[in-house]
Amino acid sequence: MNDIAPAWTPTPQQIEAARITQFTRWLAQSRGLQFDDYDALWRWSVDDVDGFWCAFWDWADIRAKHARGVALADASMPGAQWFPGVELNYVDQVFRHADASRPAIVARSESGATPGIIREVSWAELRQQVAACAATLRRLGVRRGDRVAAYLPNTADTVVAFLATASVGAIWSVCSPDMGPLAVLDRFRQIEPKVLIAVDGYRYGGKAHDRRDLIAQLLRDLPSVDHLVLVPQLDIDARATDFPNAIAWQDAITAEAPPGGGALEIEAVPFDHPLWIVYSSGTTGLPKAIVHSHGGVVLEHVKIMALHLDLHAGDRFLWYASTSWIMWNCQLGGLLVGATLCLYDGNPGYPQADSLWRFVGEAGVTFFGAGSAYFQGCLKADVAPRAAADLSRLRAVGATGSPLPPECYTWILERVGPVWIDAISGGTDFAGCFLGGLPTLPVRLGEMQCRCLGARVEAFDEAGRPLIDEVGELVCTVPMPSMPLYFWRDTDNRRYRESYFDTYPGIWRHGDWLRITPHGGAIIYGRSDATINRHGIRMGTSELYRAVESLPEVLDSLVVDLEYLGRASSMPLFVVLRPGVQLDEALTAAIRTRVREALSARHVPDEVHQVAAVPRTLSGKKMEIPIKRLLLGQPLDKVANPDTMANPESLAWFADFARVREEQREAQGGAA
């Protein structure tokens, strides 16, 4: 394929100021290592895994109770052993950057006591609240290894609750309050939390959503919860006394607080001690409850923030995210390198389409990231960020969650300004990035700039051979420290292995289509498996089926997420109905409502179609991936073998549907 000319090129001043430049010079001075270009640096980082991570540890000055030894004691994948004998805590790495000259957090919310008003939290205030909240958790009986579950939005209070939980060695897990009870219970039941911290409700797009009835349901259905901490967000007068064994958030962050923001007790834990549990669903069973470690997250996130996002102490960092998206966890990494964390809780397009951009300007954001879908929405709505806000401090824009189309690169450069575009791709599964940016490399439309340091990423063909300039399966062939410790309750690691290592034993298969370009860039073309990826939040198809098929009219269903670079993303749902029932507007609305209430608004299907049967294999599995490939334009004889099907006659309807869909797409100029 023809090489694409750069759309943005760093200046000599930008290259000189970049932290990756500082790192390479440090390697030359302290290790005697010289690299001609980034590709040579990357290859060293994945060929000498132990040498790279030890060097990065020293350069970043990672704080630990004991001196580090070797980085990688066991390179098995899964099962790698990192930094044995080291003890540390995520929270130590945060508060080492406390600086009275700048705020720790700058936040705006649609809800709360002062909706719409920018709130600043100083480092001293953050430390005091974390110390008090940690003392409260200890008083409630929370100890190392206990789980603290949160049903909270993207606010400063949530950051306080997380840091307090981590400081005592407990394990954090959060769901966004826009998630319905089925999705929340499927997650929290698995981990049996001891304490639940929950918001009474929230506003989004000016609409109030009271969550107190749902909290009562969670308390009934989570018998492990001993105490509730109620955070008033929708109704500032919401009473904790309305719930059993509950205390108010204000009491939690003031009671027993050390006077004057005194000493915060931070418990040192082993490198591989669990930090949080996040969720990423497959196509069967409950959501995967993925456990990440203190040490692995600290290392990966400091690497991403410092080198691949080029965050400096004093930067103002905003990545618009929901607490149910791994980018909420990742954005906290800004605190690990001394940046001020900027939070926006609410609809980014309310009350105006450019409301989030206005916050970017008013908060003085220097690095702004969001899901690719947000930028596509701005483009379609003809938002003019520079006309709406003073973006003079903004030097970088990041994107992830789905592939960022070339036209969005152009829109950012034209409507936002000549900023560095740092598109990244990673995953909930390992809380990190495989592909990303670098401020010293050129930006090409539609491409991520590089493979990240320490991430040996390749595009594999079906035989496991690496490809260049061809689309293949995204794999990672060496371990990374933030890869999961394990899945909660997956005692024999069976589900862990099935999720990532079945296709290529000993090699991580991520489930994305990838092309590595000849100059070292990368393009993601969408999911190669059946997992739903909506605005960056991955949801298993099994969860949607449970919701849809709970309706008495629906006998069976099949959903596919049609995400492929260059085509409009859509998610059609196909339903088999009871005899005599026809799909009409009322039933379609009921299906959409059921998904919205049980899961979230993000996972409502774009289309609903009635079919006679769902294609299934001889073993009864729904044929999600073959139907997805068919609807993405592959020929029927290449995606399904009728001899291996229980109901091959069901394919005819889908083949006709795919043909009509492709004809419509071509008639519209290939855009649909």
UniProtKB/TrEMBL annotation:
Keyword vocabulary terms for this entry: ATP-binding, Ligase, Nucleotide-binding
Pfam families: ACAS_N, AMP-binding, AMP-binding_C
Matching InterPro entries: Acac_CoA_synth, ACAS_N, AMP-bd_C, AMP-bd_C_sf, AMP-binding_CS, AMP-dep_synth/lig_dom, ANL_N_sf
GO biological process terms on file: lipid metabolic process
Enzyme category, top tier: ligase
Limits of the AMP-dependent synthetase/ligase domain: 107-477
Domain AMP-binding enzyme C-terminal, chain residue ranges per copy: 549-621
Molecular-function GO terms, alphabetical: acetoacetate-CoA ligase activity; ATP binding
Span of domain Acetyl-coenzyme A synthetase N-terminal: 38-91
EC number: 6.2.1.16
NCBIfam families: ac_ac_CoA_syn (TIGR01217), PRK03584.1 (NF002937)
Family according to the record: Belongs to the ATP-dependent AMP-binding enzyme family.
Name used for this protein in its record: Acetoacetate--CoA ligase
UniProt source species: Paraburkholderia acidisoli
